[in-house]
Prior knowledge:
heterodimer, A: six-stranded parallel sheet, 14 helices, 33% helix, B: alpha+beta, 4 helices, elongated
Amino acid sequence: MVVDIPKDMTDPKTKIEYEYPKEISMRSYNPTVKGHPGQIKRALDLIVAARRPMIYTGGGVILSEASEELTELTKTLGYPITNTLMGLGAYPGTDKQFVGMLGMHGTYEANMGMHECDVLLAIGARFDDRVTGDVKQFCPNAKIVHIDIDPASISKTVRVDIPIVGDIKAVLTDMLKELKSQKKNIDSKAIASWWKQIDKWRSADCLRYDRNSGLIKPQFVVEKLCEVTGGDAFVTSDVGQHQMFAAQFYNFNKPRRWINSGGLGTMGFGMPAALGVQVAYPDAPVACITGESSIQMCIQELGLAQQYHLPIKVINLNNSYMGMVRQWQEFFYEKRYSQSHMEVQPDFVKLAEAYGHVGMRIDKPADVEGALKEAFAMKDKLVFLDFVTDEKENVYPMIAAGKGQHEMHMAPEWELI
Amino acid sequence: MRHIISLLMENEAGALSRVAGLFSARGYNIESLTVAPTEDPTLSRMTLVTTGSDEIVEQITKQLNKLIDIVKLADLTEGEHLERELMLIKVVANTAEQREEVKRMTDIFRGRVIDVTDAMFTIEITGDGNKLDAFIEAMQQSDILETVRSGTTGISRGSRCLHI
């Protein structure tokens, strides 16, 4: 929503009479909030009868404040659940039923689970191309139920079998009520063998990375950040490899803990967003996971942070490259690196200090945890942590654009099971 | 397939540009578009002719419905409907023979000659698009100086109405 106020209206000499209407009603756009009971019944029949089900949820669950309902439904059903990038935190990331994020940089178990499932329950998700990959190969054996408030989202890119238009919180509440009253039995034997398959995929440990390289791995920094903050910080990010590492390695257990620009892909979003979060929650730990390129898009806001005393922690995963651009150039452009190397960088420590903040440069894996602890102990200071990370690290697994969900590239040092 | 989408929309500045913007941003095709106020001066009625697969037309109607300016919408081609288009056409009519021929054609197509000089006729003709195409075809042996078409408008047959 943009409210544009013309300059002449701000003139103190101008008097504008305005009476706020008693009631606001629009004769156009009136969204359907309550889901159709017949559709909910039909959807539940399909869901309960599933043998290889998958729950796939997006940012809509968070917007609708429906995490509790989603968690209850998922636990009642006992089915595996995956979240999109925008949906992380809607379901507890450390729960056993959570199989990780899906999509281009999603986990092996989430993507294989999607590819092999027979019933897909999509909730508040938009079947983005980063999720579906090749639409023709998307969930080839699945009947799809889709809950969304926006009818235009339904069957937009992927044909849906049972659409339910409505507010997710309202629909899930009705669904839970209906599920409890109808007492239909889930085929627990089929579900147990489905879990066995998923656990086999899970045992591939697709997020594994080299822990003995002697270099700071970006994954390691996010992992330690999650540990040090007890997995309960507000985390914002910019766009690129660091964003994917944050999504993969920080286990979000609550909604609205993970703030990033998603499909809009705006580098420079992270620090301003973190400052906003800190204003809203002055005492909460707020981390901005970023990279040396993204952070420089809005680096001047270090001034704003000082002006308003906003003690965020900037986690700069500095690999001297626009890492995601470099990764694509490595994979798809014959390693012809072009405009992706940040050959010249400021001294971030001095820069932070110039604004009156604390700066740290960390270049050894052994110092990572200590630095993070030290930074978060400084509750009233913005601390800029410049981690010198492995220049060559890539984000895995990866589904190349236009490929099927089952056609993942894995980290090269180990074989697929 | 060809679809005729009828819209009731707010009769306000910017409403038309939002509809046109939606079509251009999403790459949908507009064959013709006509719009004018209704008996309720706060509402305009737009008739939009577009082509696309069922999936695309479904998306078009859903996306149009999301625009705040659009109050109500119907796809006329889903049911029995009438469609009409107005054309004004100016043709050369110099000789007595030419004038006789053009007049006869106009009568056959139930058109009307609405302006005359010693060198040309201006003819008004209504019908669906095919009829207007056929008239242009029939006029080919005369010299056509100018044509202008209003674009298709339409209405449902019977008691079905698009109103609020």
